[in-house]
């Protein structure tokens, strides 16, 4: 029997989100219904609400979640009812050209549930990043459920489902930061601070945090930043060069998603360094760079979707680091809120008051 539960939707561009009844079908072949226990508020949810991702309104928001599998459809063997899982938006297909080349973290044909969750009048919802987890129960592809140890706090480990994984992986997987490297991270929200924490775990020795908000910079220090720069008061590129012997950083992670911060990242890296764009731009944004600089500086300009992660490999590893006290996921949880508080959480995010507001159910 389909179930009717409460969920948070964005009905139209820019309008406040609404808590409404959502119909969740029984899981079909290859699908699972998950009882959501926690879901973090990521900036990408706000991008959806603002129409910055696509126009497929209404969206069922939320995508940074953990919960317990309630039921599975035919043919599902990897997870079973009762399993504690983190939801992922990279259920790899195993067959596309990326998977065939042995690079499943680039999978071009990831799985989502085939059936749609709907409003009570039958209107189909577009789940954010193929998940939709500001809801009591959600329907996903079984491959979107990554089983992890059940005794971890859902509010903390659920953040691995998007922003924290994206930031950690942007530094470690995409940027390849390692022992003795220098890294600068521009934008110290949940994603940027996870990049800083990742660089710390990986052994980077110069870790420069850049933001325009001093509260965020204070937080970045606690995640392992060795230096901070407030971009409102200082010349970001000059300061990063000063802090790196006059050269620039080996890796610069852009975790804002704006042309001006991307340009800072481009000019603040060392020769043969790597720029990683993990912030999500809007379709209208443009950058203009002198081609001779792109050529002359060598190195790599990369983008990082989801930190180039492989959920089955990376989520359990990060849960282990968390439980060993080497990766402080709790510090990302700024507040625990209810399903009715998502709009207020967007305001707090925009005012810079939180790293992550986490809906707990
Ligand atoms: N690539 C991915 O897979 C992925 C995954 C999750 C989120 N994201 C994106 O990453 C970005 C960051 O997400 P978040 O949840 O951390 O957002 P957030 O709003 O919590 O953090 C953004 C930070 O950038 C800072 N900032 C704004 N303008 C700045 C400037 N000019 N210079 C320096 N800092 C500036 C803000 O003060 C804030 O601390 C967003 O664009 C989001 O959509 C990408
Ligand atoms: Zn694939
Ligand atoms: Zn996200």
Write the layout of secondary structure elements.
Layout: E1 3-10, E2 18-24, E3 31-40, H1 43-49, E4 59-60, E5 65-72, E6 84-87, H2 97-100, E7 118-119, E8 126-127, E9 137-141, E10 145-147, H3 154-157, H4 163-174, E11 182-186, H5 190-202, E12 206-211, H6 214-223, E13 227-230, H7 236-243, E14 249-254, H8 259-267, E15 269-277, H9 291-297, E16 300-303, H10 311-323, E17 333-337, H11 342-350, E18 356-360
Parallel strand pairs: 4-8, 11-12, 11-14, 12-13, 14-15, 15-16, 17-18
Antiparallel strand pairs: 1-2, 1-4, 2-7, 3-5, 3-9, 3-18, 5-6, 6-10
Helix pairs in contact: 4-5
One zinc ion binds at residues 92-96, 98-99, 107-109.
- The portion of residues forming beta strands comes to 25-35%
Largest sheet: 7 strands, mixed
End-to-end gap: 22 Å
Number of helices: 11
| Rounded radius of gyration (Å) | 20 Å
Q: How is this structure best described in words?
A:
The chain is α/β, with parallel strands linked by helices and 361 residues long. The protein is 27% helix and 26% strand. The protein has helices at residues 43-49, 97-100, 154-157, 163-174, 190-202, 214-223, 236-243, 259-267, 291-297, 311-323, 342-350; strands at residues 3-10, 18-24, 31-40, 59-60, 65-72, 84-87, 118-119, 126-127, 137-141, 145-147, 182-186, 206-211, 227-230, 249-254, 269-277, 300-303, 333-337, 356-360. The strands form three sheets. Strands 3, 5, 6, 9, 10, 17 and 18 form a seven-stranded mixed beta sheet that branches. The protein has a six-stranded parallel beta sheet with strand order 13-12-11-14-15-16, with helices on both faces. A five-stranded mixed beta sheet has the order 7-2-1-4-8, with no helix packed on it. Helix 9 links the parallel strand 15 (269-277) and strand 16. The two termini are 22 Å apart. The model has no long low-confidence stretch (mean pLDDT 97). Bound molecules: nicotinamide-adenine-dinucleotide and zinc ion (2 copies). Nicotinamide-adenine-dinucleotide binds at residues 42-44, 47, 162-163, 166, 186-192, 210-213, 216, 231, 255-257, 261, 278-280, 304-306, 349, 352.
């Amino acid at each position: 029997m389909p179930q009717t539960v409460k969920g948070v939707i964005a009905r139209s561009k820019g309008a406040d989100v609404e808590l409404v009844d959502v119909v969740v079908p029984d899981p079909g072949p290859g699908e699972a219904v998950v009882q959501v226990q926690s879901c973090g508020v990521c900036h990408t949810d706000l991008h959806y609400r603002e129409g910055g991702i696509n126009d497929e309104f209404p969206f069922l928001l939320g995508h940074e979640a953990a919960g317990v599998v309630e039921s599975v459809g035919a043919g599902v063997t990897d997870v079973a009812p009762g399993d504690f899982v983190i939801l992922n938006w990279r259920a790899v297909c195993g067959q596309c050209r990326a998977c065939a080349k042995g690079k499943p973290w680039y999978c071009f044909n990831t799985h989502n549930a085939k059936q749609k969750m709907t409003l009570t009048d039958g209107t189909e919802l577009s789940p954010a990043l193929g998940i939709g987890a500001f809801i009591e129960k959600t329907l996903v592809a079984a491959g979107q459920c990554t089983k992890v140890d059940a005794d971890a706090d859902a509010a903390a480990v659920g953040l691995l489902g998007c922003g924290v994984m994206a930031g950690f992986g942007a530094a470690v997987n995409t940027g390849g930061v390692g022992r003795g490297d220098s890294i600068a991270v521009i934008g110290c929200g949940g994603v940027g601070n996870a990049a800083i924490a990742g660089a710390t775990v990986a052994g980077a020795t110069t870790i420069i945090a850049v933001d325009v908000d001093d509260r965020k910079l204070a937080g970045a220090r606690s995640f392992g930043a060795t230096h901070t720069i407030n971009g409102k008061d200082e010349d970001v590129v000059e300061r990063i060069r000063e802090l790196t012997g006059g050269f620039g950083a080996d890796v610069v992670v852009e975790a804002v998603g704006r042309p001006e911060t991307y340009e800072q990242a481009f000019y603040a890296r060392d020769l043969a360094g790597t720029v990683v764009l993990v912030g999500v731009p809007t379709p209208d944004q443009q950058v203009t760079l002198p081609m001779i600089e792109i050529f002359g500086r060598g190195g790599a300009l990369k983008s990082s979707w989801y930190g180039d992660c492989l959920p089955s490999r990376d989520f359990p590893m990060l849960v282990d680091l968390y439980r060993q006290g080497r990766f402080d996921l709790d510090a990302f949880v700024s507040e625990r809120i209810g399903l009715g508080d998502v709009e207020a959480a967007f305001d707090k995010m925009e005012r810079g008051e939180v790293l992550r507001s986490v809906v707990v159910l």
